[in-house]
Design a protein that fits this description.
Length: 440
């Protein structure tokens, strides 16, 4: 019984009842317009004196409501009211104006259904409670039986008079049941009529995919720039500390390298954060490329004591901007990976060369078999990541796994290239192959 009472008079039922009454209120102007058509057509000036004429005016007004519902703001307003009063999950409803004939047609159907059911329930809500109150009070007030209320003569009988209060209560319950059923019907049809169209779902999915792609790109930029800077600065500071009393010149060079690294990284960080704050903002500083900062990257890496040899057999200035930018990040992350896992005193060989229609990037550093295996994820190809087994020395600036090699594989794949990383005999080898011309 409590469930039935909640169905009729619960919070959700009451809110839906209010929603229906609002629909009846919205229907009134259209009913008045219907009177202007029905009255002259039937030769009557007092439509509200006749229930058939009222229903005829209502029937004429509903098509007029359907015509006016094609305005852009109709669907957003209906959706807002449905979310507030009908208890429908907001994710199942569309946002924004209806676009396209199908969406406008469903909006018109919803608006007409809302006003139609709302007009009926609102009319019943105005007429039924007074009638039910008279029936309930009829046995106790003889004046009501003697008044000219147009009551049926059967109510003068004793048995009918005794059943009048029961009929009055039953009438109120029937009104509540009609309102609850009508509210549930509207809630059931709301997602179908006010929900997003397949085109809108596709557009929303594309927008989410673009947002995720942008977030992943920014995450890679932050990881590569900030991660490399922290690894390099840590090694530079460590090397300077060890020779602080014996090699002041090296210490000065390490401090200059730390200053340059942090200043450049702060600039890159500000650029990325500006994009995060404003999706439409453009980076305030250009991203580094092979042509603009390869020499600086190698110099800052050597400043930490790393024995770095570099062979560049390509014209970095002739590379397309996307390839030059991603190649720089790949070299940066490869160096950061070597410093992180093999230590600052490791010998690293970098080779960048153009072969045919591809740019080949190779980074190698020796393995030390007396050290722990690295825990980064090393993709063997652009689509097949596997666990990395390269050793890591005790001088590693930080422990734990990362996402650098996976990010390298992602960068290569987005350009249509490949990336392979893993131990080759006694050497850890990272080899990336990129097309010289970035795909569209």
């Amino acid at each position: 019984m409590s469930g039935f009472a909640r169905f009729l008079f619960g919070r959700r039922a009451r809110r839906r009842w209010i929603h229906l009454i609002l629909g009846g209120a919205l229907a009134m102007p259209y009913v008045f317009l219907g009177e202007l058509v029905v009255g002259p057509a039937l030769g009557s000036r007092y439509e509200f004196n006749s229930l058939p004429l009222q229903l005829a005016s209502f029937a004429v007004g509903l098509p007029l409501a359907a015509l006016t519902s094609v305005f852009p703001l109709t669907r957003p307003m209906c959706v807002a009211v449905v979310r507030a009063l009908c208890g429908v999950d907001g994710e199942r409803l569309a946002d924004g104006p209806a676009r396209g004939g199908g969406a406008r047609g469903r909006t018109a159907a919803w608006f007409t259904l809302h006003l139609g059911l709302g007009g009926v329930v609102a009319g019943m809500s105005l007429a039924v409670p007074p009638f039910a109150a008279v029936l309930i009070a009829l046995p106790a007030f003889a004046a009501l039986r003697d008044s000219r209320l147009g009551l049926p003569e059967v109510l003068d009988r004793t048995w009918a008079l005794a059943l009048a209060p029961v009929a009055g209560v039953a009438t109120l319950v029937a009104l509540a049941a009609c309102a609850a059923l009508a509210g549930r019907l509207l809630a059931h049809w709301a997602p179908a009529l006010l929900g997003p169209t397949p085109e809108e779902r596709l557009a929303a999915a594309e927008a989410r995919a673009e947002d995720l792609a942008a977030r992943n790109r920014l995450a890679r930029e932050l990881h590569d720039s900030v991660g490399h800077a922290l690894s390099a600065v840590t090694l530079q500071a460590s090397a300077a500390r060890r020779v602080l009393d014996t090699d002041p010149r090296f210490v000065r060079e390490a401090l200059v390298a730390i200053e340059e690294t942090t200043r450049r990284t702060v600039g890159e960080l500000d650029a990325v954060l500006s994009v995060l704050r404003d999706a439409e903002a453009s980076p305030t500083a250009p991203a580094p490329t092979l042509a603009t900062d390869l020499d600086g990257l190698l110099h800052r890496t050597r400043a930490g004591g790393t024995r770095l040899t570099a062979t560049v057999e390509c014209d970095a200035g002739s590379l397309s901007p996307p390839v030059s930018r991603e190649a720089y990040r790949i070299v940066q992350e490869g160096l950061s990976n070597a410093l992180k896992h093999a230590g600052g005193q490791v010998a690293v060989a970098v080779r960048i060369e153009a072969t045919g229609e591809h740019l080949e990037i190779t980074l190698e550093n020796p393995l030390h078999h007396d050290t722990a295996p690295r825990s980064d994820t090393a993709p063997r190809s652009d689509t097949s990541p596997r666990s990395d087994t390269s050793p890591r020395s005790d001088t590693s600036p930080r422990s734990g796994g990362g996402h650098g090699l996976r990010g390298i594989a992602d960068r290569a794949r987005l350009l249509g290239g490949t990336a392979e990383a893993g131990p080759v005999e006694s050497t850890w080898r990272l080899h990336v192959r990129l097309p010289l011309e970035a795909p569209a």
